[in-house]
Every structure is written in C-alpha cells, then in structure tokens.
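Budget justification aside, the reviewers requested a transparent look at the raw inputs and outputs of the sequence design task funded under Objective 1. We therefore reproduce one unedited record. The lines immediately below are the structure tokens for a 295-residue chain.
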C-alpha cells in the first residue's frame, strides 16, 4: 500500500505541476518578470507538499499479549500430561509407590505396555476415552526413561503420537529429570523442559511453547492431597498475538482436590506476562475451593 500511495502521490504532483506550468506559459509569455513571479508562486505548493512524508500503512500493527486465561489453561494441561506420565511410571510398582497420584487406569479402554529391556512405557488411549475426572484423552503417549522415576537423577522423555487432551492436540517432546527428595518440604523435585512444543486447540489455533520449570510434588498426607509447586519461566507464541514471555514470580500451586474435580487450574501464585515491547501484565491467582476468582 505504501508504494501504491507513493505512486499516486507522485502522479498527482506531476499533473498539478504540469498544469500550472502550462497555464503560466500561456498567460505570461509576453512578460518574463511576471512569468517568473507566477512560476515561483505556483511551484511553491508542489515543493512544500513534496517534503511532507506520505502517510504509510502500519506494517507492524500493535500486537497484544496472549490472554492470561489461555496461558493458565495451557499450563494446567501440561501438568496433566506430566501426571499421566508419572502415574504410568508407577503402575507396576509394589514398593515406594506414591499414593495417591491420580489413577489414570480409570479411563476405559486404556492400554499400558511396558518394555523394561528398552526402558519404555506406552500408554494408548485409542480413539478416545473419558476418565472419571472428565478428561478426554486420545492417541498415544510414549515414555522413555533412564531409571525408576523415584531415583534421583532419573530422566524421562515423553513423546506424543496423535495425542490430544480435552481436544488440545500436542506435538513434540517433554523432558523431566528427578532432582531428588526434599526432606524439609516432603516433596519430590523435578526439572522439566520443553522446546518448540506445539499445542493446537479445538479451533485450529497453533501455540508454540518453550519453558523451563522446577516442580516440587509435595506428597499427600492423611488430611490433605498432594500439592504441585511450580517455579520457572517460558515463552508462548501464536498467530495474531505478540510473542509472550512469562515468569513465575510466586510459586504456582495446583491442588489434588481441584485436579481430581477436573479443574487443572492454579489456586495460588503469581505470573508476570511480557510482550516484545516490554509491556507487562501481572496475574495473581487466588481461589475459594477450586473456582478461580477475579484478580
């Protein structure tokens, strides 16, 4: 549009200039001084307007930060995926089993196969099933591991084959590493990393996620369920929005009772969002029960 506007502007200037010159030439041929004065008066607007820059269409329109609710929903789905993997890892354990993690065998038709020789677990949800918590799962998760996940230093890689969770299709890999048991907080600490992980929602919108987390999985007690405490940072990008970076300023908390009720949403914590222009939004999570309240 800029070049079209510039061309039209140049043509109009040329036609204006040519018309004025022709007019002055016809009227002032007999008087050179009068011709010079009129020529200067006529050509001044052309020179003046030529110095004014042509209005350009904004080739980089203002891009908004990705909505915080979208980011929160995606973070919750990622937590669900990791819990699926941890649940599958301990399916056959008779000792040192963390109870109660979420029992994903409740999803009808799920097939879990173990290949201990190659250290792989395959979880196949087939064409789809709905768990007792109301989560719809389709496709296959494959978990490759270096050792039993309770051992410090053990690593897991989760890959996805035509996998979707609640209609959100996932592509790429997730990596987890056991950083050891934290005695003071009674929690297992995991590092998780994702690079160029893709999530495609039910409307076909594609998100690209990069993140690095530290996750403390606080074990349940007789009075309370487990708690997940997240710290870390990441970026999320998609069409029509600015690439948005996020940083957890105060640990994001997920509670077992909320996740069991089918609400994989944070109940505590704060998150700072920032776009490419360094514009920032602070998101605070505070809940009563498992319902997110306005900030």
């Amino acid at each position: 549009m800029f070049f079209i506007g510039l061309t039209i502007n140049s043509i109009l200037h040329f036609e204006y200039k040519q018309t004025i010159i022709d007019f002055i030439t016809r009227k002032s041929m007999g008087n050179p001084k009068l011709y010079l004065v009129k020529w200067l008066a006529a050509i001044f607007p052309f020179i003046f307007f030529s110095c004014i820059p042509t209005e350009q269409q904004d080739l980089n329109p203002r891009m908004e930060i990705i909505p915080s609710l979208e980011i929160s929903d995606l973070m919750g789905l990622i937590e669900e995926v990791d819990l699926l993997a941890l649940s599958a890892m301990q399916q056959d354990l008779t000792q040192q089993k963390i109870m109660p993690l979420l029992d994903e065998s409740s999803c009808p038709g799920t097939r879990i196969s173990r290949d201990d020789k190659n250290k792989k677990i395959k979880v196949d949800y087939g064409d789809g099933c709905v768990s007792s918590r109301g989560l719809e799962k389709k496709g296959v998760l494959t978990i490759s591991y270096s050792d039993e996940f309770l051992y410090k230093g053990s690593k897991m890689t989760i890959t996805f084959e035509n996998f979707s969770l609640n209609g959100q299709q996932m592509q790429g890999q997730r990596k987890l590493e056991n950083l050891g048991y934290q005695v003071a907080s009674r929690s297992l600490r995991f590092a998780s990393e994702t690079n160029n992980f893709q999530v495609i929602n039910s409307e076909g919108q594609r998100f690209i996620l990069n993140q690095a987390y530290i996750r403390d999985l606080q074990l349940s007690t007789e009075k309370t369920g487990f708690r997940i405490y997240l710290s870390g940072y990441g970026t999320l990008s998609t069409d029509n929005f600015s690439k948005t970076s996020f940083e957890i300023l105060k640990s994001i908390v997920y509670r077992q009772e909320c996740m069991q009720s089918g609400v994989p949403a944070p109940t505590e914590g704060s998150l700072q969002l920032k776009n490419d222009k360094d514009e920032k939004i602070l998101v605070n999570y505070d809940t009563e029960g498992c319902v997110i309240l306005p900030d």
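Helices lie at 2-28, 32-50, 68-89, 256-260. Residues 2-28 form the longest helix (27 residues). Computational costs for records of this kind are itemized in the attached budget.
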